[in-house]
C-alpha cells in the first residue's frame, strides 16, 4: 500500500511555492501598474496580468495549500504543538493579505487605485516576512 503522507506533503510544498510566487509577484505588478497612465495600453495589460495571475495561480494555489495543509496537520500532528498553532496563525494572516490583494486587483481593474507605488513596494515585503516565520516554525519547531 502506498503511503499518501509524503505525496500529499510534496503537493503541499508545491502549492505553497506557487502561492508564494504569486503573492510576491502581484504587488510588484501593482508597483508598475501605478506608473501606467489610466486607460493606456500598459494599464490594460497590467489588468489582464493581475487578473490571470490571481485566478489561474494564486487562488488555486492558496486553496490547495489550505486543503493539503489542514489534512497534513491533522494526519501528522493531530493539530498538536505550539509551533503548528503559530504557523497556522501566520498562514491566516497571509490569507488575509491574499484577500486584500483580491480587493486591490478589483480596484485596479475599475481604475480606482488611490495608493502610490511606494505603498505596494512595502506590501511586497510582507509575504516574505510571513514566509520566513512559517518556514522557521516548520523546520525548527521552536516550541
Q: What is the structure about, briefly put?
A:
By secondary structure, the chain is mostly helical. The chain is 83% helix and 0% strand. It starts with a helix and ends with a helix.
Report on this model:
This protein is mainly alpha-helical and 143 residues long. Helices cover 83% and strands 0% of the residues. Helix 1 (4-35) packs parallel to helix 3, helix 1 packs antiparallel against helix 4 (117-123) and helix 3 runs antiparallel to helix 5. The chain is elongated, with a radius of gyration of 17 Å. The model has no long low-confidence stretch (mean pLDDT 97).
Helices and strands, with pairings:
Elements: H1 4-35, H2 41-77, H3 82-109, H4 117-123, H5 126-140
Helix pairs in contact: 1-2, 1-3, 1-4, 2-3, 3-5
Uncertain runs with pLDDT below 50, 5 residues or more? none
Number of domains: 1
Class based on secondary structure composition and strand pairing: mainly alpha
Rg, nearest Å: 17 Å
Number of strands: 0
Name the helicity range: over 70%
Key phrases:
elongated, mainly alpha, 143 residues, 5 helices
Amino acid at each position: 500500500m502506498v503511503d499518501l503522507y509524503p505525496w500529499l506533503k510534496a503537493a503541499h510544498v508545491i502549492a505553497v511555492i506557487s502561492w508564494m510566487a504569486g503573492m510576491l509577484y502581484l504587488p510588484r505588478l501593482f508597483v508598475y501598474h501605478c506608473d501606467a497612465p489610466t486607460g493606456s495600453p500598459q494599464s490594460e495589460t497590467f489588468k489582464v496580468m493581475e487578473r490571470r495571475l490571481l485566478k489561474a495561480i494564486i487562488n488555486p494555489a492558496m486553496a490547495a495549500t489550505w486543503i493539503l495543509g489542514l489534512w497534513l496537520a491533522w494526519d501528522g500532528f493531530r493539530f498538536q504543538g505550539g509551533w503548528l498553532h503559530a504557523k497556522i496563525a501566520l498562514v491566516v494572516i497571509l490569507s488575509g493579505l491574499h484577500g486584500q490583494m483580491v480587493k486591490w486587483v478589483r480596484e485596479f481593474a475599475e481604475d480606482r487605485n488611490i495608493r502610490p507605488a511606494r505603498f505596494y513596494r512595502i506590501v511586497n515585503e510582507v509575504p516574505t516576512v510571513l514566509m520566513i516565520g512559517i518556514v522557521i516554525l516548520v523546520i525548527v519547531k521552536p516550541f
